[in-house]
Amino acid sequence: MTAACLMNTYQPLPLSFAKGLGTRLWDQAGREYLDAVAGVAVTNVGHSHPRVVAAISEQAGLLLHTSNLYSIDWQQRLAQKLTQLSGLDQVFFNNSGAEANETALKLARLYGWHKGIEQPLVVVMENAFHGRTLGTLSASDGPAVRLGYQPLPGNFIKVPFGDLAALDKVAETYGQRISAVLLEPIQGESGVQLAPPGYLKALRERCNRRAWLLMLDEIQTGIGRTGQWFAFQHEGIVPDVMTLAKGLGNGIPIGACLARNNVAQLFTPGSHGSTFGGNPLACRVGCTVLEIIEEQGLLTNAKRQGERLLVRLRAELSDHPEVVQIRGQGLMIGIELAHPCRDLMLIAARDHGLLINVTRGKTIRLLPPLTIDDREVEMIVRGVCQTLKSVQQAQGVSDCTPAQA
Ligand SMILES: *Cc1c(COP(=O)(O)O)cnc(C)c1O
């Protein structure tokens, strides 16, 4: 099949799948792969989970869409569940992560406007990724995703991730004009970058003191990925606004923006909206995903298997000349390499029956389903080791073709 009719925005591997079940995928030729990407932190409860399949089929036979002109039962149920789990008060449903972040950014603007700030500013982080719309690109970093799209919406200030002193300096300079701070608890796209312990707590204190909104993009870290429902729960804080997407629908498109009452209530009828957002199918699947995570104990499993995977990878690879650092939390793990090697790495892993992801050219990112067991942890470790070996043998590390950002 030719892809000539598709816009050239991705460079897909020459690999296409016919079906998936649990942690496994099968290609068109029937070859089996262990999926350690999970559609980029999406299929958290595994492919074709029987309960997700049943929820989709049953709901498709009942009702797919009515629009938000009518109240939607499943939307209210999912909102109730998400607010219970997070400690936030209200939810707006979107169809994707970028849209959920747009919702958050609009809330930041409204919040500033209500406070009488003429040109409210949002503090964002270096190396952040928040999506591909014009607004979320403004909040993101990196020339690769932003080049050629200027002018982007303004009024963002960038500070280094994890650097409180830099934030304090910005506060001194811009003080009253800042309405919010937006960040990922762990930066995913930029290579699984962890903040120093206590960072979120310190941000929470500063936001309280200055009446800034603390807005967390948990699109990748949320829904159990790090071993808690949401990554902020590791630090015992609650943000003012949080966005979700990816794992919430396990493959059915859905996004959500959650907020505390005082922020959420800035929206009034007509001030925001979505045709598809919060449709019965997506919300029912969201409810089902949350139930599965609870009933199968997947938070505990993500924590336990994540720790095991980290320990085992460090045991096998810490002395490897190509490996700079192995880091992560729960089942969000990065292996930073000395040289960019993206394409060779992906192909070599594929040949070993393992699906991985490489970000920023040289960090292997592992995001397996939250259901993986002891044996699959070993399979991932073995697969990564074999992949590194194959890449070295194939070309010698220094000859690796420089990858794109
Ligand atoms: C994937 C991702 C997004 C964008 O989500 P889309 O559904 O692709 O729009 C935003 N923020 C983070 C942290 C992400 O990982």
Notes on the protein architecture:
With 405 residues, this protein is an alpha/beta fold. The chain contains 13 helices and 17 strands. It is globular, with a radius of gyration of 21 Å. The two termini are 28 Å apart. Pyridoxal-5'-phosphate binds next to helix 4.
User: What is the CATH top level name of the largest domain?
Assistant: Alpha Beta
Q: What is the CATH third-level topology name of the largest domain?
A: Aspartate Aminotransferase, domain 2
Total helical elements: 13
Bound molecules: pyridoxal-5'-phosphate
Largest sheet: 7 strands, mixed
What structural class do helix, strand and pairing data support?
A: alpha/beta
CATH superfamily of the largest domain: Type I PLP-dependent aspartate aminotransferase-like (Major domain)
Radius of gyration: 21 Å
Uncertain runs are 399-405
Count the strands? 17
Give the overall form.
Answer: globular
Assembly status: single chain
Count of distinct structural domains: 2
> How large a portion of the residues is in β-strands, by DSSP E?
15-25%
Could you write a compact summary of the structure shown?
The chain is 38% helix and 18% strand.
Task: Give a topology summary.
Layout (H helix, E strand, L loop, with lengths): L16 E5 L2 E4 L4 E4 L2 H4 L8 H13 L10 H14 L3 E5 L2 H18 L6 E5 L8 H6 L3 H4 L9 E4 L4 H11 L3 E6 L2 E2 L5 E2 L4 H12 L2 E5 L23 E4 L10 E5 L1 H4 L15 H16 L2 H20 L5 E7 L2 E6 L4 H10 L2 E2 L1 E3 L3 E4 L7 H22 L10
Parallel strand pairs: 3-15, 5-6, 5-7, 7-10, 10-11
Antiparallel strand pairs: 1-2, 2-3, 4-12, 8-9, 11-12, 13-14, 14-17, 16-17
Helix pairs in contact: 2-10, 3-10, 11-13, 12-13
The protein binds pyridoxal-5'-phosphate.
